[in-house]
Amino acid sequence: MTISDRIIERLQQISMSQKEFAEKVGIQQSTISEWKKNKTNPSSDKILAICKALDVSPEWLLSGVDPAASRGKNQEYYVIDINTDTGKLVAEFNKLDKSQRDRILGYVEAFASLKK
User: Fold this and answer.
1) Distance CA 93, CA 106 (A)
2) What tens-digit pLDDT sequence spans the chain (116 residues)?
3) Which domains, from first to last, does the chain contain?
4) Which residue in 31, 30, 39, 54 sits closest to 5, CA to CA?
5) Is the dihedral of CA 22, 23, 25, 28 positive or negative?
6) How far from 113 is each of 4, 59, 99, 101, CA to CA, in Å?
7) 3, 42 Cβ separation under 8 angstroms
8) The pTM is what?
9) In 3-116, which ranges are continuous DSSP H helix?
């Protein structure tokens, strides 16, 4: 199943019209028709907007694997919106050199052990 197949299936599940979906995502309604007709997929810059409009995870949209369900294997990564506190934290953390990151991780582990 392609990404566009999952989008069309999800639209049916949640009874959302293609017009409403196009407005929420910020695309032309004809784009959705092109996805269906040519079995093409949306551009990468629209993935998060599509996920938000459909209330699905990027993992499900891209792979069909639902991490909340029992099918499929658990993934060892997160998809994080850069505009959230967590996203900002990760972005700043990634700017640090290795010794600074190791130091921060040490603080986090020590802080986490206090909660136990």
Assistant:
1) 13
2) 788 888 999 999 999 999 999 999 999 988 888 888 877 788 888 999 999 999 998 888 988 877 665 444 455 667 778 888 988 998 899 899 999 999 999 999 999 899 76
3) 3-63 (1.10.260.40), 85-115 (no CATH)
4) 39
5) positive
6) 44, 31, 21, 18
7) yes
8) 0.57
9) 3-13, 18-25, 29-38, 47-54, 58-63, 85-95, 98-115
